[in-house]
Write the structure tokens for this entry.
Amino acid sequence: MFKRQWWRMSIDRKVQSFAAVIVFIILVSAGFAMFTMNYSLRDYGQLLDENRACQSFMKAMEEEGLAFDGYVSAGTETARDTLEKAIHHTERAIDALPFDYEIIGAERYARTWNIRNAYQQYAAFRDEMLSDSMNRTGFLKHLNEYNQREDYLEQYSRRLLQLTVEAGSSAYTEKLPLFRVLPFIFINFTLIMLVVVVEMGSVMKESIAKPVRELSQEAQRIARSDFSGEDIHVENRDDLGELVSIFNDMKHAMEENIQTIQENHRMTELLQQEKLENSEMEKRLNANRLELLKSQINPHFLFNTLNMIGSMADLEDAPTTEKMTQSLAQLFRYNLNTREQIVPIEMELRIAENYMYLQKMRFGSRIQYQVNTPEEVSHIRIPSFTMQPLVENAIVHGLSKKEQGGTVSVTVTEDPTSEIVTLLIEDDGLGIAEERLSVLNARMHNPEENKTARIGIGLGNIYRRIRTLYPEGGDLRIDAKEGVGTRITLTIPQEREGVEPRPALEGV
């Protein structure tokens, strides 16, 4: 019964039916696999991370204790540096401990809070012990209390680790019964689907593959200009059977019109090629239009999103997050809305200050920022997007890799006589080796090399803009000494009455 209906079914229906079965099997298998993985591994990764965080804190506390004992015993600067590194490691380990009530639960949250609070007291007591003002007698008197505080922290961390392990064990115990049943369900389903696919494949081979193979063989013979073969005969009553009948008629017609068909074929190929080329060009044009629209939408979307996040931070009473979001939004607002080439220096200083605020949130007290300007700066104008890249260059290349950090200072001076404004961006970071400095200056002052050479964040761009806007008097110099710091001197002539800076070249 099934085979009779199958012979009458169209090829589309046959292929769709077979494809539907395959897709169903794939979807069910994939869904089953995803369900199994999600069910089995859900919460496991989080629990492993939490376990790892607990162990990292315990290890960090152990290292800090050993470093403290070493410093107490030796009292050297090396031992003091080792202790400070261990303290920094412990602080980072505490910050990494999960502290979300909704995720870890009440008891683990309470234990984590105990650890954070106890460590703050422990750190304050430790710093007091290590202060220069404490004499040896006072130090020995408090050493026992210090060890007791350390033991309390160790007990808290062990209990937190125990609770984390128990949470993972409980999750596994709950899911264990289903784990034992799932493999049998999947095996039975696979066997059933395999039988169905094999049976349908056999029928597809008989009803489609065989006639198609005969068509292919006859078509190959016709391709060799051999029309002597017998007509193809099939039992199909579907569109494949109709195709075979049409193929037989076509063979006879082709034998009489082979030359015409070949010529038409060549013309068709030429027209098709032209259509493809036109279609490809249209696709590229549409892609470029789409990218242009995206480039217009994305900045506005990002800026509006930052404003929304800032508003949410204000509602949630998170002033630091709100301030960071506002600072970043102001950076994007300046980048998005500023179209002038020359802007008041107050705008550039404000953007640099916003950038430094974000960096201070990252580096803390390691990075200091100083600004020295004349009392009145409203009349001073400089090229846009100048100050922040130079400050960023000082952070990235000078101070970020320096363990103890340092200071970035911006000094603005004006010569009323020559109407020249000088900007000094200085840092006491790693500096630049003499050979490297020579290469940077040579590349920056060589127009051909400057177009492609990497000479630091924005330095090449700023130099080209200054030289283009102020061909007479504008300059940028780099002075540095390895291990001491770097100083960038920016010389910018001010506008004289009736004289404006040259427009920047396109792409500079």
Summary: The chain has three domains: 44-176, 258-337, 340-493. The domain at 44-176 is CATH 1.20.120.1730 (Four Helix Bundle (Hemerythrin (Met), subunit A)). The longest strand covers residues 406-415.
